[in-house]
Sequence to fold (353 residues):
Amino acid sequence: MHGGGGTSGRRAPPVSIRRRRLRGMVSSCPDGTAAAVTAMASASAPAVPTTFGQAVIGPPGSGKTTYCLGMSTFLAGLGRRVAVVNLDPANEGTPYACAVDIGELVTLPDVMEALKLGPNGGLVYCMEYLEANLDWLHDRLAPFRGHYLLFDCPGQVELCTHHGALRSVFAQLGRWGFRLTAAHLVDSHYCTDPAKFISVLCTSLSTMLHVELPHVNILSKMDLIEQFGKLAFNLDYYTEVLDLSYLLDHLASDPFFRHYRQLNEKLVQLIEDYSLVSFIPLNIQDKESVQRVLQAVDKANGYCFGVAEQRSLEAMMSAAVGADFHFTSTLGIQEKYLPSAEEEALEQEDMHL
Fold:
């Protein structure tokens, strides 16, 4: 580990530690002088370009690193200056070029060895360590002002649903002028299991309420959606999170979940009462699918309303009202990746013959 010290209430790692602290002269000024100094400094300082980006979050195995690689390549093809920031201390040998790597500050193997922690406790400590040394992150991000940033975040779900360190990091980035959207990736094959899909909905809702960022939920790996089973409904049922009572009927047919019907009803009612969760299907290798996700992210963080791409009024209005085209709609994706009923009937007939 390199850089700052541990958090309060925790034993510091047995390595050399040097906390960086911000030092200023405003506190030594007489009353009323501090405000004048601050005003003069802000007036004379050059305007800092607005920095947009995405905080890529999601459970382990949902494809966050692959998403960062594919999205950065796609953005570079659009002419945007893009930089990828690795905030996962367990990431080793990332396929993309890291503009900023948390491994320079702290790594999970070092924490596990020094403090005798497991992977989950080690990740929590690493995020608290980053929270205590945000000046390190500020210095590393300074050269990339004006770039489009992709933050590859750890995959531990608790960091986005219960723990506050990662949320504090995002909040501080917002105070520094970074406009981020949380791109929450979920493996699409969970749609094939009603119980798992309800669990995914609860996790997504909890993440949206806890992270406190503009949020876009994404069903990743759409080309593998039916690898572990068949969908009970059309794809738009899952992306738009329609009437979930039909899922309860499917769960009632399972002897195990039959005893938990009331609990499942309360969970479904909670999700529908908030009415916040919806998904965008994504296959990172499909440019049209990536474009649709990027359009939603740009609307969420306000990038499409800026002057970065010199958008016309018509383009801004179409983004504001959510104009969509058939080839990028959920129906188009379903036709591309899910076999139709006629094709399934023909396959069954061929097997019968």
Remarks:
- Residues 194-211 form the longest helix (18 residues).
- The mean pLDDT is 80.
- The radius of gyration is 23 Å.
